[in-house]
Specification:
Length: 247
Amino acid sequence: MAPRESAERIIEQMLVTSFPDVAYGTIQEAALAVCDVGLRRPPTVTDAVEFERRFRDRLLPEESRTEDRTTAAASPRPGEEESTAGVTPRRPLWWPPARRREEQRRQAENREARRHSALLAAGQRNSELLAAALEDPELADTIYTGEADIPPGKKRQFLFVRAMYNSIVLAWMTGAIVWEELHGRMRVLMRQPVAREYWEATQPERASMPRDTDEARAASLVDEIVQIFESIDEPDEWWIVGEPPRE
């Protein structure tokens, strides 16, 4: 098979895969248009715009054409006449919808991975600061543990409860545990009277927390657990304290 015929067949297969609902005659015409340019000279931005003008409405379904679009400007190749200096490369309007969705999915996964990395880094730093405060009473005085003055021993207990609470919340926020496990671990932690005392003392710190954050959801869960512990007659029976609310 001649090089041109082979190139046309490959391009046809690519287009059929990307646009399975398009008539084969349109696929053949589009493949021929690509070969007419690509086998004669390096394609230019003008070629891309012309291809889009001819085939966008015939290749893309109506819902894809009405999406918020971005225009494409490929980087100039050696010997290309048109200058694309100062133009931000973007996807062409005829970028296949399936490819666009896949790219959006990868971008979302990358954002989530970066978020997890940032959460872990912040959690590690927070643990280091709390560890330093546990060792140095002067540093401990810089961390909010309520308005009332408390003995050094009680302050160390409060700081340890804070470290435990932060660790459990971080595990949930990064996906290491699920909502039900978060509830179970907080229930175990808050069965200790000193933990509930810390929670009550630091309530003003959480008063201005935005309600739509993960931190606020976790704090609300603990509020419910503490309320139940304070209302039952035998708090030692911690395993009966509530069922986890729906996430």
